[in-house]
Amino acid sequence: MTAKDQCNDAEIRSQLQDLPGWAYDASNVRIEKTFVRKDFRDAVGFIRQIAYRAEAHDHHPDILLSNYKNVKVMLSTHSAGGVTANDFDLARAIENLLA
User: Quick one: pLDDT at residue 12?
Assistant: First the structure.
């Protein structure tokens, strides 16, 4: 699997085993996770941290802030038409923000 090659279902499921809480949304061809933060300010701060990681990876997720503290991160490589190694790399970088 290279950064630009779309992953198949088996590769996606294998990669997700190391990413607790992340799921594959086959209908939208993306991986996603919702993070519940302490409050609105914490959620916005978390989004800012994600933005810096995304810029460093030159890979930009879709992010939804809802119910004042829920941050849903959705990753897909649009140029490849699906999920690639780049998506898993960024998911891991986002998880490292919580460590």
Answer: 96
- C-beta of residue 68 within 8 angstroms of C-beta of residue 40: yes
In the chain, the domains with their CATH numbers are: 9-96 (3.30.1360.20)
Q: pLDDT tens, 41-68?
A: 999 999 999 999 999 999 999 999 999 9
> What does 6-74 look like in DSSP terms, one character per residue?
PPPHHHHHHHHTTSTT-EEETTTTEEEEEEE-SSHHHHHHHHHHHHHHHHHHT---EEEEETTTEEEEE
By DSSP bridging, strand 30-36 and strand 23-25 are antiparallel
Q: In what order do the strands lie in the sheet with 30-36?
A: 23-25, 30-36, 70-75, 62-66
Biggest CA-to-CA distance, the chain? 38
